[in-house]
């Protein structure tokens, strides 16, 4: 989907049968305190080590073509429970790639579903106290990052409650605030691990390479005006500074205080009181003939005046004022700003489904979005791994579908995918109540941000399917057969076999049964009611509509549908999208979806108003997809992964998080340099997922008068389990993304239909981009101060460093951040310039407020 896309790694495997294992309740009922204590001790004392050995081994076992090798090692404690084999001893673990082959003298593996696997003892095998057992795991694809490893391996046996193996629990680093897994071995062999071999040119971002990259960009320009995203026009005026320390008093015309209250609150939070004893008037006039979101801000002659097109423009002006007033320490120097957004759609997508993130985190991000003038929040609320929004008519969706635990029959929870562990607790579980969601919508609306809810379907729907099976079982057992069947999303006679991209065999809604549409209608109806209760009518609904796994071919219900419509099974996905889009249109709602699914529809069967999120990469058809769908007259929102997927790593390094199927490096400069109106031109700057420079062709030019509606940044959360991890992946890249959504740069060449661009193309002025970057970087220290105030745990870029002539030289991506160094594990010292050193040197960068540090890098 616009999601994790293991498309480049996936190959279809034969279907594995789900093991028939007693239910968690049955196991608990049979539990013995003595046996439980033995296994609890085993879980506490067992040693575990995961090591990524080789991403391009010389040969692969049969059935594991395109392989990489990891080893999983278990070291047994001095005492073991008696009768392990007879007890049905098993270890469950998550492995996010396909895992067709394991090699072990003792263990055998079996796929359960998705990324969940089970290790059991081979017939006749025994474990010995104190002995280490190594298992070779031959996965398909590659693991370039420690983030691909999942936590919370757990053990089970007959008659015991499942227990997490303590060595595999995640921990938080005290200095960086980042989550880490101590059982995962450091990845140090660049030759074997940095690339997939062959023509893969990826190398790790070492301190020496970072030093060269930062030096090539040049020193940041000193900033006097720090507003980001950069205004269309901003200049200093003459005269004395205005003292805001005594507070301000808004005088409003054409806009109510309620409409801009959130922006005024942000001004107050920056230290400018709304109830000062000697307040300075801020005159705000809205509806003055400017466009949506546009404004003029003038600070001159002891007065502050804002003229705006609407409440959004007035709020944008105040947000700019906040940044500048903080920088000027509330002694605001005269300034004139004229500003308007480039795109009407400036979005952020947050995945709450794979791993849940708290209401408090979402509210914090909404405030940050407003600070950087975003106006669309796309909330991904349901996927295979979780359903995250309360639907009162269907309580099982959150009672069952919002948590993952060890219940093999999935009557109380979903299977523990993505290393969720067996207990159904922890931050990756949870959901938004309706009251939570209404609060979120109200907070967004107060900041002129539209909330776009997303329930992915017909694929990526496992959480819904399994939850509705629990509902069916409950009502059927109560003798309410008709009620039970009303929302059942499984057709008993459907014998279709498939595997989704994420390795599920049961995650796709049947598009030929009435229950599917009844289910969607009920969910959308309640969501629309929540929006109404929040005072913000639902306008756009995102259906996902991507990565459908080839279901329905053997569905009895689909055979007459195929006969009637003349479509084969593969075309039924488009049938579903067209039908749902029409249903939403009749409700007065705009349909949105990911471009691959929408691309299979017949535009003549779609409503006039359609939003398509383009998520194919720039090197794999994304440009053609964008142009074709723009030519349909649809609203094209660029969500391309090699720029807009902020779950991708910042740089190629094993300690950077996120999947990397679309790009090995999405650093802030790459986001900053995105050319949105001339997509082929990006071929002059960026590289493909193998770090190769490639020409990007404009194979299907867009029609005159067609263009892009906006941009959307995405964060998918498979490897992001904490709220702090969300902050790290988003910031500071999201600020650069806001720059491209808001402002058209002078260095972007005009689009010419059919023109192709290769690496280093002279039509793209890299010198001008770097000059603009230096201006942007010079404004970032003020933004880090703002992020600190918002309590956003942004990524602190590790320093670049080298040793030349026996002296340590270091530099940083942004000005104003202190660099520390130490030798021999000694005390940290502040780097102030080249200094003589001996032996390896460790370095780190500290946050602007000094409370956090970057990951440590070593130079020799």
UniProtKB/TrEMBL annotation:
> What EC class is this?
hydrolase
Going by the UniProt record, its keywords in alphabetical order are:
Glycosidase, Hydrolase, Signal
Give the protein name, as stated in the record. Answer: beta-N-acetylhexosaminidase
Q: Does the keyword Signal apply?
A: yes
Question: What InterPro entries does the record point to?
Answer: Beta_hexosaminidase_sua/sub, CBM2/CBM3_carb-bd_dom_sf, CBM2_carb-bd_dom_sf, CHB/HEX_N_dom, CHB_C_dom, GH, Glyco_hydro_20_cat, Hex-like_dom2
> SUPFAM superfamilies under this entry?
(Trans)glycosidases, beta-N-acetylhexosaminidase-like domain, Carbohydrate-binding domain, E set domains
- Catalytic reactions on record: Hydrolysis of terminal non-reducing N-acetyl-D-hexosamine residues in N-acetyl-beta-D-hexosaminides
Show the SMART domains listed in the entry. CHB_HEX
């Amino acid at each position: 989907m616009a999601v994790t896309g293991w498309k480049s790694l996936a190959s279809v495997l034969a279907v594995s049968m789900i093991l028939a294992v007693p239910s968690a309740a049955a196991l608990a009922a049979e539990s013995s305190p003595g046996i439980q204590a033995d296994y609890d001790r085993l879980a506490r004392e067992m040693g575990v080590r995961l090591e990524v050995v080789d991403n391009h081994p010389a040969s692969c076992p049969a059935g594991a073509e395109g392989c990489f090798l990891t080893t999983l090692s278990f070291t047994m404690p001095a005492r073991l429970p008696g009768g392990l084999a007879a007890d049905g001893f098993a270890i469950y673990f998550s492995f996010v790639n396909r895992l067709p082959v394991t090699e072990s003298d003792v263990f055998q593996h079996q796929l359960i579903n998705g990324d969940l696997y089970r290790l059991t003892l081979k017939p006749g095998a025994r474990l010995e106290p104190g002995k280490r057992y190594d298992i070779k795991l031959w996965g398909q694809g590659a693991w370039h990052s420690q983030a691909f490893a999942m936590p919370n391996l757990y053990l089970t046996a007959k008659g015991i409650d499942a227990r997490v193996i303590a060595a595999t629990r995640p921990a938080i680093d005290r200095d960086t605030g980042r989550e880490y897994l101590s059982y995962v071995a450091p990845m140090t062999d660049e030759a074997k691990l940095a690339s997939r071999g062959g023509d893969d040119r990826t190398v790790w971002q070492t301190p020496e390479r970072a030093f060269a990259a930062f030096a090539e960009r040049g020193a940041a320009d000193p900033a006097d005006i720090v507003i980001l995203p950069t205004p269309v026009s901003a200049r200093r005026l003459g005269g004395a500074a205005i003292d805001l320390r005594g507070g301000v008093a808004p005088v409003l015309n054409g806009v109510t205080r309620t409409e801009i209250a959130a922006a005024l609150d942000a001004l107050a939070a920056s230290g400018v009181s709304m109830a000062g004893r000697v307040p300075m008037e801020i005159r705000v006039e809205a509806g003055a003939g400017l466009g949506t979101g546009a404004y003029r801000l003038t600070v001159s002659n002891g007065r502050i005046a804002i003229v705006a097109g609407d409440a959004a423009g007035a709020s944008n002006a105040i947000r700019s004022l906040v940044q500048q007033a903080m920088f000027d320490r509330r002694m605001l120097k005269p300034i004139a700003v004229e500003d308007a957004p480039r795109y009407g759609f400036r979005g952020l997508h947050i995945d709450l489904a794979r791993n849940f993130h708290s209401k408090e985190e979402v509210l914090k991000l909404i405030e940050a979005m407003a600070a950087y003038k975003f106006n669309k929040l796309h909330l991904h609320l349901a996927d295979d791994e979780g359903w995250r929004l309360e639907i009162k008519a269907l309580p099982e969706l959150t009672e069952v579908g919002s948590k993952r635990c060890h219940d093999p029959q999935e009557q109380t929870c979903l299977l523990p995918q993505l290393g969720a562990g067996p207990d159904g607790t922890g931050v990756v579980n949870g959901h938004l109540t309706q009251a939570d969601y209404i609060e979120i919508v109200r907070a967004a609306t107060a900041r002129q941000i539209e909330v776009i809810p997303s329930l992915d379907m017909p694929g990526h729907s496992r959480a819904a399917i399994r939850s509705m099976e629990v509902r069916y079982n409950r009502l059927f057992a109560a003798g309410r057969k008709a009620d039970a069947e009303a929302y059942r999303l499984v057709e008993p006679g459907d014998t279709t076999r498939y595997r989704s991209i994420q390795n599920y065999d049961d995650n796709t809604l049947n598009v030929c049964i009435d229950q599917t549409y009844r289910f969607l209608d009920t969910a959308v109806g309640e969501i629309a009611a929540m929006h109404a209760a929040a005072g913000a009518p639902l306008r756009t609904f995102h259906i996902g509509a991507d990565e459908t796994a080839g279901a329905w071919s053997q569905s009895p219900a689909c055979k007459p549908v195929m006969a009637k419509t003349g479509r084969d099974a593969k075309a039924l996905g488009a049938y579903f999208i067209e039908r749902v889009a029409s249903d939403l249109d009749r409700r007065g709602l705009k349909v949105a979806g990911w471009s691959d699914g929408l691309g299979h529809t017949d535009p003549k069967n779609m409503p006039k108003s359609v939003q398509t999120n383009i998520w194919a990469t720039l090197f794999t058809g994304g440009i053609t997809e964008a142009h074709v769908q723009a030519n349909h007259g649809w609203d094209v929102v660029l969500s391309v992964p090699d720029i807009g997927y902020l779950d991708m790593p910042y740089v190629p390094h094993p300690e950077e998080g996120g999947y990397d199927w679309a790009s090995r490096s999405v650093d802030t400069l790459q986001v900053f340099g995105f050319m949105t109106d001339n997509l082929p031109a990006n071929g002059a700057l960026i590289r493909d997922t193998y770090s190769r420079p490639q020409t990007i062709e404009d194979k299907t030019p867009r029609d005159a008068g067609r263009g892009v509606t906006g941009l959307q940044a995405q964060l998918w959360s498979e490897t992001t389990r904490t709220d702090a991890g969300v902050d790290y992946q988003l910031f500071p890249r999201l600020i650069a993304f806001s720059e491209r959504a808001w402002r058209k740069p002078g260095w972007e060449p005009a689009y010419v239909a059919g023109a192709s661009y290769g690496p280093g193309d002279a039509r793209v002025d890299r010198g001008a981009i770097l000059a603009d970057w230096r201006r942007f970087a010079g404004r970032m220290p003020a933004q880090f101060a703002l992020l600190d105030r918002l309590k956003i745990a942004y990524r602190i870029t590790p320093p670049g460093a080298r040793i030349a002539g026996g002296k340590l030289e270091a530099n940083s991506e942004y000005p104003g951040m202190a660099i520390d160094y130490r030798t021999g594990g000694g005390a940290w010292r502040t780097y102030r310039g080249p200094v003589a050193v001996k032996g390896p040197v460790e370095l780190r960068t500290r946050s602007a407020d000094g409370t956090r540090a970057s990951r440590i890098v070593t130079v020799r």
